[in-house]
Amino acid sequence: MDPAEALREIAFWLEREQAEGYRVRAFRTAAGIVAGMAPDDVAARARDGRLKRVKGIGDRTFAVVRETVDGVVPEYLRELRARAEAPLADGGGELHALLKGDLHAHSDWSDGGAPLDEMAQAARWLGRDYQALTDHSPSLTIAHGLDAERLALQLDAVAEANEALGDGFRLLTGIEVDILEDGSLDQTREMLGRLDVVVASVHSKLRAESGPMTRRMLSAVDDPHTDVLGHCTGRLVQGSRGTRPESQFDAAQVFAACAEAGVAVEINSRPERQDPPDRLIQIALDAGCLFSIDSDAHAPGQLDFLRYGAARAEANGVPAERIVTTWPLERLLDWTRRHR
């Protein structure tokens, strides 16, 4: 087993388990270090102990490298694989098996923790047919959002990644574009028109009154570039960031507009979001909406969070045929290009 691959796989399983960030970073940092060294050099340094003195290599990561050099699957990796055999969520297995892709994930181009090619490789390893890369837009400066120039550069990087990945998987170009206070989308029209997928989300003024928030969301849904309405209430129900109440808006009106425009309502799979709440999923179902089960992953291991979203969708009786992420790639792209 390649030492860098072993270290990256350990990081993947830790991300999936929602381990502390510093633990994940330790393994990803070590993976980058050994990947940049000649294999024979790694083996020699591991066997005589010199690798321990390399900055970024700790006791645990050294042990992993040493075991792989000796031709053994590392004990820690075996332990994590065994823990991963237990399902992340109760239920949703049949629906999860029907999911072909994911329309919401981030890379280190904005606030994600891994390069876009690693996100793509992890999605392919999980059996996805496609994965959208939807880094943030420029107004979200805290997340290092992409302006038009940086987004154009990312499109070239996605094309290069797809060429390297070959047939059988597609990394889709996209953005999680901020819905500004006036309801406009935080990116140029020209760039939005070049993307495969546009997820529109509110990230600011989340405590606005219902009237202005409703008008803001309706304007975004009415924009022909919008494909998915992301984490519509903005709530947080658990996690390191604490909790946050739902944004207030006229759900019946917003979801009716989504149904009319063919915009999918996102079922956000992040455990700390669980957004929309069940009662709003029911309103969106009654309105005739499409849905998109998305991971909102910020690291490779979080791509498997789709299992949480599938469990919630199944529990709420969402039909598979109304979930766009169960659709094959060609049908999905026909849908996202409907107004382009």
Automatic annotation (TrEMBL):
Residues 101-181 form the Polymerase/histidinol phosphatase N-terminal domain. InterPro entries: DNA_pol_lamdba_lyase_dom_sf (IPR027421), HHH_MUS81 (IPR010996), PHP_dom (IPR004013), PHP_phosphatase (IPR050243), Pol/His_phosphatase_N (IPR003141), Pol/histidinol_Pase-like (IPR016195), PolX_PHP (IPR047967), UCP036978_PHPhdr (IPR017078). GO terms for molecular function: phosphoric ester hydrolase activity; zinc ion binding. One of its GO terms (cellular component) is cytosol. SMART domains: POLIIIAc. It holds the Pfam family HHH_8. This is PHP domain-containing protein. It comes from Sinomonas puerhi.
